[in-house]
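Might I ask for a little of your time on a matter of protein folding? Here, with my thanks, is the record as I have it:
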Amino acid sequence: MINERPFNYFKNGLAIGVGVGFAGGIFSTLWMKKNQSMNADDVLDQIKAAFLKEGPIEGSWINFEKQPLRKFAVTSQGYTGGITRTEDGQLITYEFLADAKTGTVLDIQRSIID
């Protein structure tokens, strides 16, 4: 009976250690997914796909460095980029600002290239 106690302590300690490790792994995975931002290429691909639904595009670009954004009390990080396409025989450029976490377009400006 005396020999069984140390083994029980080991089993209980092992079970607690595995449980804490498992819970910590789940928590850290959820935290990383929440705080992880999208890759610049993925953001550009998502925006290009939306533009391709309306017609062909001539070219596209994106700045890989994130820029700090602030709109009123909300702060975030974002990517800048652009899409070029021909509309009615004119070359048109769309410059966009996209949220780095979600890839959502926050602002877009259309300009005609002379």
